[in-house]
Amino acid sequence: MSFRILRYIFAHRKVVVWSIIIPAFLALLFVVIADSKFRSETLLMPPMEEGSEGLIAAYMASMNLPSMVVPMTGGSMTAAILVDILETRAIAEAVITGQGLMEWYKSDSMYEAIQELRAKTSITASATGMIKLSVIDVEPKKAADILNSYITNLDSLNRQLQYTRAGNTMEFIGRQIEEYRERLAGSRRQIADFQSENGIVDFDEQIRGTIDVAAALKVRAVIAEIELDMLREFSTENASALKRSEMELESLTGQLEKIMRSDSSSSVFIPLSSMPELYQQYAAYNRDLEVNERVYSFLLQRYEETGIERARTTPSVQVVDKPSIPVKRAGIPRWGIVMIAGGVGLIWSCLFLAWWAWISGKGREKEEEEAFQDLLELFRKDTLALKKRLRL
């Protein structure tokens, strides 16, 4: 059967040859007529934002306190967020308007222009956090110009988002500053009145240590509560950061209660609950004063840092590889397209002839030997004809 099929294909080799020539010619005609496409690429790195950590993390970094609960708040903007921003309609419309792409793409509407731009744009984020952005266009310089427009508009939108976020943060911290300014003034008046009435000036070092530890925990609990209020104001109820902040506040509150009751038998501090009533009252006043002073000082520092971040003019997007004008065509080379078309024609014609030979010669197994001899004879004749042509 196989020799008969091969003989049939070999006998109709002209069909095979034309099945190769015609698709290859059509492919060659296509690559000559079709517009060449060029790909311009760039590599971006997400901005490393300073001062974007949570209030607890910032406080623990500025104060030398034991980290009983390590905060899990994030720091920098991830590449996934930047990729989502690059794919927004706002960025696409800004690029189309700035580069005049509606006329360039000959689109009748902004929607069609956006679809055309997205079809020619590739945005991917690597596992290391780098962003690869590429654009294909018929003009090399236009492809590079579109990429530069992407970067410019991304930086502009990112600055706007940072400015708005910093403004909201400053407004929130400003309200907290006013509240703790009043608390601090009240604590100072309260402890001054208490000292003058009872003649109390200071405690011994052990009692002072108890107050310091309790004050440190109370400060962290207050800051955690402030951060929790901020997250509740700007986040959804199911946000992971909100749940972590609630757990953190609950843990700090529990530790503060242990210090107050001294549940641990190995504690080296005098529990506040076991002090004489007068000293307990003074310890509570003094603790509240220290808490208010530390929180007030910390809020002032954070307010200044947020103001600096809001007024920052440095680029928010770091370009690792600048967009360059491509010199080589994108995609499969022209000769590759021609060869693929010819290969497809070869495979298709051989399969079709084999199928036809099998259908037409079904049940003729006795002709297999004869087909083999005929195949050898055809091969011999073609070889002799080729030798004669070479001699000429």
How would you sum up this structure, described in words?
The protein contains 13 helices and 4 strands. It is α+β, with helices and mostly antiparallel strands and 392 residues long. A 4-stranded antiparallel beta sheet has the order 2-3-1-4. The chain has helices at 2-11, 13-33, 55-62, 79-86, 89-99, 101-104, 110-119, 140-198, 205-234, 240-261, 277-310, 334-360, 368-391, and strands spanning 38-45, 121-125, 131-137, 318-321. The protein folds into 3 domains: 2-33 and 332-391, no CATH class; 38-162 and 317-321, EIF_2_alpha (Alpha-Beta Plaits); 199-310. Mean pLDDT is 76; it is low at 50-77.
Stretches where pLDDT is under 50 for at least 5 consecutive residues are 50-77
**C-alpha geometry:** elongated
Number of strand segments: 4
**What do we call the CATH topology of the largest domain?**
Alpha-Beta Plaits
Q: Roughly what percent helix? A: 55-70%
Number of helices: 13
Rg, alpha carbons? 39 Å
Reported CATH architecture of the largest domain:
2-Layer Sandwich
Terminal Cα span? 38 Å
In terms of quaternary structure, what is this? single chain
Give the biggest beta sheet.
4 strands, antiparallel
Structural class: alpha+beta
User: In what order do the strands lie side by side in the largest sheet?
Assistant: 2-3-1-4
How many separate structural domains?
3
Order of helices and strands: HHEHHHHHEEHHHHEHH
Mean pLDDT: 76
- Give the percentage of residues in beta strands: 5-15%
Can you identify the CATH class of the largest domain?
A: Alpha Beta
CATH homology superfamily name of the largest domain: EIF_2_alpha
